[in-house]
Amino acid sequence: FGTTTDSEVIGQLIALSPGPTWVEKIRAAMARLEGAYSLALLTHEALYAVRDPLGIRPLALGRYNGSWLVASETCALDHVGAELVREVEPGEIVEIDRNGLRSYLGRVSPRQAFCIFELIYLARPDSRFSGRLIYLMREAMGAELAREHPVEADLVTGVPDSAIPAAIGYARASGIPFREALIKNRYVGRTFIQPDQRMRALGVQLKFNPLPEVLRGKRVVVVDDSIVRGTTTPRVVRLLRAAGAREVHLRICAPPIRWPCYYGVDMATREELIAAHKSVAEVAAWTGADSLGYLSVEGLLRAVGLSGSRFCLACFTGDYPVPIPEALGKYVLEAPAAR
Ligand code: SF4
Q1: Nearest CA owner, ligand 1 atom 5
Q2: Which of 40, 111, 182, 301 is the most core-located residue (most Cβ within 10 A)?
Q3: Among residues 173, 281, 266, 170, which one has the least CA distance to residue 225?
């Protein structure tokens, strides 16, 4: 291998697979691949778009000025003025060349398992899934949270940026006003995917600045998208209290994350996941919040408005769509220096 990216493994596998055409090579490779992948492959003659049979990650087809486009999120099509035609189907191979677009069945799966974490956090809110705008799904998650975990408070705020739509949804459903109370430093990246604990801690410190004039003396509901390791959340609670919040009530628009992801989301090992080892009451005490409420799996599915049979929910339920050997750690394929 010439790189350290896992995409190269797939490229090599396809190149070495048997078959007289690229479609047959890709199909042969798909028969051997397990897990999450959305691929855009370019040969001298054609562009191929390929989605894993479970449809774990998104992949969209667009059209602009008579040309076809492939994007991992639909918002990318909007930016170039392209029209969303449809999603690439789970297990589908799309071939696009100068004669147009052809669709082939790459591999059949008895079930689908789109990553529900895309809808909670990963995808941009201006993307669409199954024809629905993700921003509106997140608002609905906040509204479900307000129904499941009501509390008396003076204002609702969200941890920017990804939890803002859910905070607006919570505010609307509860009748408590929404206010921005944390300002995000836009030059710092996402904290849970920073490589080590020191960098993550520094990231939180640099990431948010609270507004004391908004918070002073107030009972605050703060909505966040998830609690992974529990690194960020206590710091956010401390920031809000230091800026004068009288009470801090945490509301999380995901259920407790108790299982690691083996399908491409670099979250944490099971040992690092706070909800894998602590009860909800213990997590609440750890964060320093006055109360903590997680959205239930049922509430999450009501908010997205689609059947649970279409989704991977494994980080909440441990029910992996592809069997995971118990002894397999998430670092099993990493070189020691990269861990
Ligand atoms: S385990 Fe969680 S993050 Fe990973 S694909 Fe499934 S739902 Fe997404």
Answers
A1: 115
A2: 182
A3: 170
Specify the domain boundaries for CATH 3.60.20.10 within the chain. Answer: 6-110
- Name the stretches of the chain with pLDDT < 70: 188-205, 325-339
Phi, psi of 84 (to 5 degrees): -75, 125
By the 8 A CB rule, do 94 and 66 touch?
no
Domain with CATH 3.40.50.2020 in the chain: 116-338
Ligand 1 neighbourhood includes 120 CB (under 6 angstroms): no
Which CATH superfamily hosts domain 6-110? Aminohydrolase, N-terminal nucleophile (Ntn) domain (3.60.20.10)
In the CATH scheme, what architecture does the domain 116-338 have?
Answer: 3-Layer(aba) Sandwich (3.40)
E strand or H helix that includes residue 69: strand 67-71
With beta carbons less than 8 A apart as the criterion, state whether 134 and 161 touch: no
- Give the model confidence (pLDDT) of 273-304 as tens digits: 999 999 999 999 999 999 999 999 999 999 99
Ligand 1 atom nearest residue 316's Cα: 2
